[in-house]
């Protein structure tokens, strides 16, 4: 799934996709945002607005 439209995606769907990609494809959030050329702070803020926080130790948003 392409994440170029992450800013307009449903936040629950976005969180689910990001967590799946972190689990299956990327070693870290930094790797994921670098690969998709996404601003990490903007992504985290978008998900935080929906009530999700990135947990570094768990390597996922909850």
Automatic annotation (TrEMBL):
UniProt protein name: DUF4250 domain-containing protein
Domain of life: Bacteria
Organism expressing this protein natively: Salinivibrio proteolyticus
């Amino acid at each position: 799934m392409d994440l170029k439209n992450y800013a307009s995606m449903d936040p629950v769907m976005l969180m689910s996709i990001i967590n799946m990609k972190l689990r299956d494809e990327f070693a870290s959030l930094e790797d994921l945002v670098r690969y998709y050329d996404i601003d990490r702070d903007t992504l985290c803020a978008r998900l935080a607005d929906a009530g999700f926080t990135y947990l570094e130790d768990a390597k996922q948003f909850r």
